[in-house]
Amino acid sequence: MSHTAHIPSHRKPRRNAPKTALRAGVAGGVLSTIAVAAAAGPAQAEPVTQTIEMPTITSGLSTAVAASAEATQQVAQDLQTQAQEDAAAATAAKAAKKAKAEAVRKAEAKKKAEAAAKAKAEAALRASRAEARTTLSASSGSSTNVASTTSASSSSSSSSSSSSATGSAASVLAFVKAQVGDAYVSGGTGPNSWDCSGLVQAAFRSVGVDLPRVSQAQSTAGTQVSLSNLQPGDILYWGGAGSAYHVGVYVGGGQFVGAQNSSTGVVQRPLSYDPPSGAVRVL
Protein backbone atom coordinates (compact mmCIF):
# COMPACT_ATOMS: atom_id res chain seq x y z
CA MET A 1 0.00 0.00 0.00
CA SER A 2 1.27 3.36 -0.95
CA HIS A 3 2.16 5.77 1.72
CA THR A 4 -0.24 8.23 0.08
CA ALA A 5 -3.16 5.97 -0.16
CA HIS A 6 -4.93 7.32 2.90
CA ILE A 7 -4.32 11.01 2.18
CA PRO A 8 -7.36 12.75 0.62
CA SER A 9 -6.70 14.36 -2.70
CA HIS A 10 -7.16 18.16 -3.05
CA ARG A 11 -8.11 17.93 -6.69
CA LYS A 12 -11.66 18.61 -7.67
CA PRO A 13 -13.43 15.64 -8.84
CA ARG A 14 -13.61 15.29 -12.58
CA ARG A 15 -16.94 16.34 -13.86
CA ASN A 16 -18.94 14.24 -16.02
CA ALA A 17 -18.56 14.79 -19.71
CA PRO A 18 -22.27 15.25 -20.42
CA LYS A 19 -22.61 18.07 -17.90
CA THR A 20 -19.59 19.75 -19.40
CA ALA A 21 -21.04 19.47 -22.86
CA LEU A 22 -24.38 20.85 -21.66
CA ARG A 23 -22.74 23.87 -20.09
CA ALA A 24 -20.70 24.47 -23.17
CA GLY A 25 -23.87 24.43 -25.25
CA VAL A 26 -25.66 26.83 -23.01
CA ALA A 27 -22.71 29.18 -23.05
CA GLY A 28 -22.53 28.94 -26.78
CA GLY A 29 -26.22 29.68 -27.09
CA VAL A 30 -25.93 32.69 -24.90
CA LEU A 31 -22.95 33.95 -26.85
CA SER A 32 -24.85 33.35 -30.09
CA THR A 33 -27.85 35.33 -28.81
CA ILE A 34 -25.56 38.21 -27.82
CA ALA A 35 -23.91 38.12 -31.22
CA VAL A 36 -27.26 38.18 -33.03
CA ALA A 37 -28.48 41.09 -30.89
CA ALA A 38 -25.27 43.00 -31.58
CA ALA A 39 -25.61 42.35 -35.27
CA ALA A 40 -29.23 43.52 -35.22
CA GLY A 41 -28.20 46.98 -34.03
CA PRO A 42 -27.83 48.88 -30.85
CA ALA A 43 -30.64 48.76 -28.39
CA GLN A 44 -33.14 51.69 -28.52
CA ALA A 45 -32.32 54.17 -25.81
CA GLU A 46 -35.05 55.81 -23.83
CA PRO A 47 -35.75 59.51 -24.88
CA VAL A 48 -34.12 62.08 -22.70
CA THR A 49 -36.24 65.07 -21.71
CA GLN A 50 -34.44 68.29 -20.75
CA THR A 51 -36.16 71.36 -19.31
CA ILE A 52 -34.74 74.79 -20.38
CA GLU A 53 -35.54 77.77 -18.32
CA MET A 54 -36.47 80.92 -20.45
CA PRO A 55 -35.30 84.28 -19.26
CA THR A 56 -38.00 86.38 -17.65
CA ILE A 57 -38.81 89.67 -19.55
CA THR A 58 -38.46 92.48 -17.11
CA SER A 59 -40.89 95.41 -17.02
CA GLY A 60 -38.23 97.82 -18.44
CA LEU A 61 -37.64 95.64 -21.49
CA SER A 62 -41.41 95.33 -22.04
CA THR A 63 -41.78 99.12 -21.98
CA ALA A 64 -38.92 99.55 -24.48
CA VAL A 65 -40.48 97.02 -26.84
CA ALA A 66 -43.86 98.76 -26.61
CA ALA A 67 -42.26 102.15 -27.27
CA SER A 68 -40.41 100.80 -30.30
CA ALA A 69 -43.63 99.32 -31.70
CA GLU A 70 -45.45 102.64 -31.16
CA ALA A 71 -42.64 104.56 -32.86
CA THR A 72 -42.74 102.18 -35.82
CA GLN A 73 -46.50 102.61 -36.10
CA GLN A 74 -46.14 106.43 -35.94
CA VAL A 75 -43.53 106.38 -38.72
CA ALA A 76 -45.87 104.27 -40.86
CA GLN A 77 -48.72 106.72 -40.23
CA ASP A 78 -46.47 109.69 -41.07
CA LEU A 79 -45.42 108.06 -44.33
CA GLN A 80 -49.03 107.33 -45.22
CA THR A 81 -50.05 110.93 -44.41
CA GLN A 82 -47.17 112.30 -46.51
CA ALA A 83 -48.16 110.08 -49.40
CA GLN A 84 -51.75 111.32 -49.18
CA GLU A 85 -50.59 114.94 -49.05
CA ASP A 86 -48.31 114.42 -52.06
CA ALA A 87 -51.17 112.83 -54.00
CA ALA A 88 -53.50 115.70 -53.08
CA ALA A 89 -50.88 118.27 -54.10
CA ALA A 90 -50.36 116.54 -57.44
CA THR A 91 -54.11 116.47 -58.05
CA ALA A 92 -54.44 120.15 -57.13
CA ALA A 93 -51.53 121.10 -59.39
CA LYS A 94 -53.08 119.19 -62.27
CA ALA A 95 -56.45 120.87 -61.68
CA ALA A 96 -54.81 124.32 -61.48
CA LYS A 97 -52.94 123.69 -64.73
CA LYS A 98 -56.15 122.63 -66.43
CA ALA A 99 -58.02 125.66 -65.06
CA LYS A 100 -55.26 128.00 -66.24
CA ALA A 101 -55.33 126.51 -69.73
CA GLU A 102 -59.11 126.90 -69.81
CA ALA A 103 -58.85 130.52 -68.63
CA VAL A 104 -56.28 131.27 -71.32
CA ARG A 105 -58.51 129.67 -73.93
CA LYS A 106 -61.52 131.70 -72.79
CA ALA A 107 -59.46 134.91 -72.72
CA GLU A 108 -58.26 134.31 -76.26
CA ALA A 109 -61.81 133.54 -77.40
CA LYS A 110 -63.06 136.71 -75.71
CA LYS A 111 -60.29 138.74 -77.29
CA LYS A 112 -61.13 137.37 -80.74
CA ALA A 113 -64.83 138.06 -80.17
CA GLU A 114 -64.09 141.63 -79.09
CA ALA A 115 -61.86 142.17 -82.11
CA ALA A 116 -64.57 140.82 -84.40
CA ALA A 117 -67.20 143.01 -82.73
CA LYS A 118 -64.95 146.05 -83.02
CA ALA A 119 -64.29 145.37 -86.68
CA LYS A 120 -68.02 144.92 -87.27
CA ALA A 121 -68.82 148.16 -85.42
CA GLU A 122 -66.19 150.07 -87.39
CA ALA A 123 -67.55 148.69 -90.66
CA ALA A 124 -71.07 149.69 -89.64
CA LEU A 125 -69.82 153.14 -88.63
CA ARG A 126 -68.05 153.63 -91.94
CA ALA A 127 -71.18 152.54 -93.78
CA SER A 128 -73.27 154.93 -91.68
CA ARG A 129 -70.91 157.80 -92.35
CA ALA A 130 -70.91 157.06 -96.08
CA GLU A 131 -74.70 156.95 -96.08
CA ALA A 132 -74.90 160.21 -94.14
CA ARG A 133 -72.54 161.92 -96.56
CA THR A 134 -74.56 160.60 -99.49
CA THR A 135 -77.74 161.86 -97.87
CA LEU A 136 -76.21 165.27 -97.19
CA SER A 137 -74.97 165.51 -100.75
CA ALA A 138 -78.34 164.47 -102.15
CA SER A 139 -80.11 166.89 -99.84
CA SER A 140 -77.79 169.71 -100.85
CA GLY A 141 -78.23 168.93 -104.55
CA SER A 142 -82.00 168.66 -104.40
CA SER A 143 -82.56 171.71 -102.23
CA THR A 144 -82.19 174.04 -105.21
CA ASN A 145 -85.01 172.26 -107.00
CA VAL A 146 -87.61 172.55 -104.23
CA ALA A 147 -90.67 174.48 -105.36
CA SER A 148 -91.64 175.70 -101.93
CA THR A 149 -90.73 179.31 -101.33
CA THR A 150 -89.75 178.60 -97.72
CA SER A 151 -87.58 175.66 -98.71
CA ALA A 152 -86.05 177.67 -101.51
CA SER A 153 -85.29 180.49 -99.12
CA SER A 154 -83.74 178.13 -96.60
CA SER A 155 -81.70 176.42 -99.31
CA SER A 156 -80.56 179.73 -100.63
CA SER A 157 -79.53 180.86 -97.17
CA SER A 158 -77.62 177.65 -96.55
CA SER A 159 -75.99 177.82 -99.96
CA SER A 160 -74.91 181.39 -99.46
CA SER A 161 -73.51 180.56 -96.03
CA SER A 162 -71.55 177.62 -97.41
CA SER A 163 -70.31 179.60 -100.37
CA SER A 164 -69.07 182.31 -98.04
CA ALA A 165 -66.69 179.84 -96.40
CA THR A 166 -63.46 179.93 -98.33
CA GLY A 167 -59.87 179.07 -97.74
CA SER A 168 -59.09 177.81 -94.23
CA ALA A 169 -62.68 178.12 -93.04
CA ALA A 170 -63.90 175.87 -95.85
CA SER A 171 -61.23 173.31 -94.94
CA VAL A 172 -62.30 173.39 -91.28
CA LEU A 173 -65.93 172.82 -92.29
CA ALA A 174 -64.98 169.95 -94.57
CA PHE A 175 -62.96 168.34 -91.77
CA VAL A 176 -65.69 168.45 -89.11
CA LYS A 177 -68.42 167.32 -91.53
CA ALA A 178 -66.29 164.34 -92.52
CA GLN A 179 -66.31 163.19 -88.88
CA VAL A 180 -70.10 163.17 -88.52
CA GLY A 181 -71.08 159.71 -87.29
CA ASP A 182 -67.85 159.10 -85.38
CA ALA A 183 -68.09 157.98 -81.76
CA TYR A 184 -67.85 160.27 -78.76
CA VAL A 185 -65.17 159.21 -76.27
CA SER A 186 -64.05 161.39 -73.39
CA GLY A 187 -60.47 162.43 -74.12
CA GLY A 188 -60.75 161.21 -77.73
CA THR A 189 -58.61 162.95 -80.34
CA GLY A 190 -59.42 160.82 -83.40
CA PRO A 191 -59.22 159.48 -85.91
CA ASN A 192 -62.50 157.60 -85.30
CA SER A 193 -63.54 158.84 -81.85
CA TRP A 194 -63.55 162.34 -80.36
CA ASP A 195 -64.57 164.54 -77.53
CA CYS A 196 -65.83 168.06 -78.29
CA SER A 197 -62.59 169.98 -77.83
CA GLY A 198 -60.53 167.21 -79.45
CA LEU A 199 -62.58 167.52 -82.64
CA VAL A 200 -62.31 171.33 -82.74
CA GLN A 201 -58.57 171.24 -82.07
CA ALA A 202 -57.98 168.67 -84.86
CA ALA A 203 -60.13 170.62 -87.35
CA PHE A 204 -58.14 173.83 -86.89
CA ARG A 205 -54.83 171.99 -86.76
CA SER A 206 -55.61 170.69 -90.26
CA VAL A 207 -55.25 174.30 -91.49
CA GLY A 208 -52.19 175.07 -89.36
CA VAL A 209 -53.91 176.73 -86.41
CA ASP A 210 -52.93 175.38 -82.97
CA LEU A 211 -55.69 175.69 -80.40
CA PRO A 212 -55.63 174.80 -76.70
CA ARG A 213 -56.78 171.29 -75.87
CA VAL A 214 -59.72 172.00 -73.53
CA SER A 215 -63.05 173.78 -73.98
CA GLN A 216 -62.39 176.47 -71.37
CA ALA A 217 -59.28 177.71 -73.17
CA GLN A 218 -60.77 177.38 -76.65
CA SER A 219 -63.69 179.65 -75.64
CA THR A 220 -61.24 182.54 -75.31
CA ALA A 221 -58.81 181.56 -78.09
CA GLY A 222 -60.08 184.18 -80.58
CA THR A 223 -62.20 187.29 -80.88
CA GLN A 224 -65.60 187.16 -79.20
CA VAL A 225 -68.45 187.55 -81.73
CA SER A 226 -72.21 187.91 -81.43
CA LEU A 227 -74.38 184.88 -82.11
CA SER A 228 -76.32 187.09 -84.54
CA ASN A 229 -73.17 187.72 -86.59
CA LEU A 230 -71.81 184.18 -86.98
CA GLN A 231 -69.67 183.10 -89.92
CA PRO A 232 -68.85 179.52 -91.00
CA GLY A 233 -65.79 178.37 -89.12
CA ASP A 234 -66.54 180.24 -85.88
CA ILE A 235 -66.08 178.27 -82.65
CA LEU A 236 -69.27 177.99 -80.60
CA TYR A 237 -69.13 177.42 -76.86
CA TRP A 238 -71.57 176.49 -74.12
CA GLY A 239 -71.08 178.01 -70.70
CA GLY A 240 -69.10 181.13 -69.85
CA ALA A 241 -66.11 182.42 -71.80
CA GLY A 242 -63.12 180.91 -70.06
CA SER A 243 -65.30 178.40 -68.21
CA ALA A 244 -67.04 176.69 -71.12
CA TYR A 245 -67.95 173.03 -70.79
CA HIS A 246 -68.63 172.30 -74.46
CA VAL A 247 -67.55 173.56 -77.93
CA GLY A 248 -68.48 173.03 -81.56
CA VAL A 249 -67.97 174.57 -85.02
CA TYR A 250 -70.54 176.69 -86.83
CA VAL A 251 -70.94 175.38 -90.40
CA GLY A 252 -73.44 177.94 -91.74
CA GLY A 253 -77.15 177.74 -92.44
CA GLY A 254 -77.92 177.98 -88.74
CA GLN A 255 -76.22 174.64 -88.04
CA PHE A 256 -73.16 173.39 -86.15
CA VAL A 257 -71.07 170.22 -85.95
CA GLY A 258 -69.91 168.92 -82.60
CA ALA A 259 -69.01 165.79 -80.66
CA GLN A 260 -72.02 165.92 -78.38
CA ASN A 261 -72.04 162.86 -76.11
CA SER A 262 -71.62 159.09 -76.03
CA SER A 263 -75.23 158.57 -77.14
CA THR A 264 -75.14 160.72 -80.28
CA GLY A 265 -71.45 160.86 -81.18
CA VAL A 266 -70.42 163.53 -83.71
CA VAL A 267 -73.54 165.17 -85.17
CA GLN A 268 -74.63 168.08 -87.33
CA ARG A 269 -77.56 169.89 -85.73
CA PRO A 270 -79.39 173.26 -85.93
CA LEU A 271 -78.52 175.84 -83.30
CA SER A 272 -82.02 175.40 -81.87
CA TYR A 273 -81.13 171.82 -80.97
CA ASP A 274 -78.79 173.14 -78.26
CA PRO A 275 -78.41 176.95 -78.31
CA PRO A 276 -74.79 178.00 -77.58
CA SER A 277 -73.76 180.66 -75.08
CA GLY A 278 -71.26 182.49 -77.28
CA ALA A 279 -68.75 182.27 -80.09
CA VAL A 280 -65.16 183.20 -80.96
CA ARG A 281 -63.62 183.82 -84.38
CA VAL A 282 -60.14 182.45 -84.99
CA LEU A 283 -59.90 182.61 -88.81
Task: Give a written overview of the molecule.
This protein has helices at 17-40, 59-142, 149-164, 167-178, 196-205, 215-218; strands at residues 183-184, 193-194, 223-225, 235-238, 246-252, 255-261, 265-270, 278-281. With 283 residues, the protein is α+β, with helices and mostly antiparallel strands. Among the domains are: 77-145; 166-281, endopeptidase fold (from Nostoc punctiforme), CATH 3.90.1720. The strands form two sheets. A six-stranded antiparallel beta sheet has the order 3-8-4-5-6-7. A two-stranded parallel ribbon has the order 1-2. A hairpin with a 3-residue loop joins strand 6 (255-261) and strand 7. It starts with 16 loop residues before the first helix and ends with a strand. Residues 136-163 have low confidence and may be disordered.
What distinguishing features does this structure have?
283 residues, alpha+beta, endopeptidase fold (from Nostoc punctiforme), 6-stranded antiparallel beta sheet, two-stranded parallel sheet, 6 helices, 8 strands, rod-shaped
